[in-house]
Amino acid sequence: MDIRQIDPHDDATFTDWYAALRSGLVAGRTAPIVFAREEVSASLRSPSPTKKRLPFAGFHDGRIVAGMILDLPQAENLDLVEWTLAVPPEHRGHGHGAAMFAEGLAHARRLGRTVHNSEVDVPAGQALEDSPGSRFALAHGFASLHTEDRLVLDLPLGDGELERLRVHSAVAHDDYELITWVGACPDELIDGYAEMRTIMGHEVPTGEIEHEVIVWDVERLRTGERRLAAQGFASITTVARHTSGRFAGYSLMFAGEHSPEGVYQDDTLVLDGDRGHRLGAALKVRNLEELAARFPERRHVHTWNAESNDAMQHINADFGFRAVETMHEFELRDEG
């Protein structure tokens, strides 16, 4: 097999590469979500200053039979490689995945990268060893060090359900103001918001995975906002601000124009000293209200929830989220 890095500006090759990658990523999964072609194209054609993305294709008899992306952080975690590797079902069993992994590992070694992470989604209730992606990862020395439930909320919510959630969450936070925006963060809020994003990196459960926390500042936030807009994403953000003026929490979701049915529910954070006021639920309700007003055509919200995060597990269950997959975060530390 011929393995080479592809040029994302080569439309014909990129289209075939993306089709192979997507086919492998969605095979055998439950309610799978994969970034759209346009989203991936934009992220590769306009490199981020904080993450380099390298796309590779495996060719056999002139056809692309495997796809791979190596993501290389450029600020924190300079020893890390984040992997996406997929082989369409019809091309499996011929060693293509193993060959791609060997090439990727050799490339990482040349760059001095020794820590390798990859996420594998396993349908709910399926044993780890019954998942092709997990079997592949385990066979190549990876270990599952962190798991999260991947949850789906069907939209629109039933009659009166959003109002029930709003009333239930509004009982105990009179000392807080909720502020919502779509797109770029208002200038007067961005310093406090950047601080919250950094705190989230310290608070989010990661199991046995140990990484340097991403430090957010105004420049990094603004760069990220521009890149997301270029990829076709609209962000919906709500922050909770105490009457004293300090931020107490936030919730963030993304709606992509190239994936017109789904929405990504990303971070939700409430600071330790502000918990117990139903702020987590209130933040998510406000975002859902904004989503219904701005994007009424959306049919599913996708989110992830660590099993250890009991508070968010209860909130998501009350909202009606259902578990469809378990996301396993695998890690390999390369001894050379």
Automatic annotation (TrEMBL):
The keyword Ribosomal protein does not apply. It holds the Pfam family Acetyltransf_1. Residues 1-158 form the N-acetyltransferase domain. It comes from the Bacteria. GO terms for molecular function: acyltransferase activity, transferring groups other than amino-acyl groups. CDD domains: NAT_SF. The keyword RNA-binding does not apply. Keywords: Transferase. InterPro entries: Acyl_CoA_acyltransferase, GNAT_dom. This is GNAT superfamily N-acetyltransferase. It comes from Phytomonospora endophytica. The lineage of its organism: Bacteria, Bacillati, Actinomycetota, Actinomycetes, Micromonosporales.
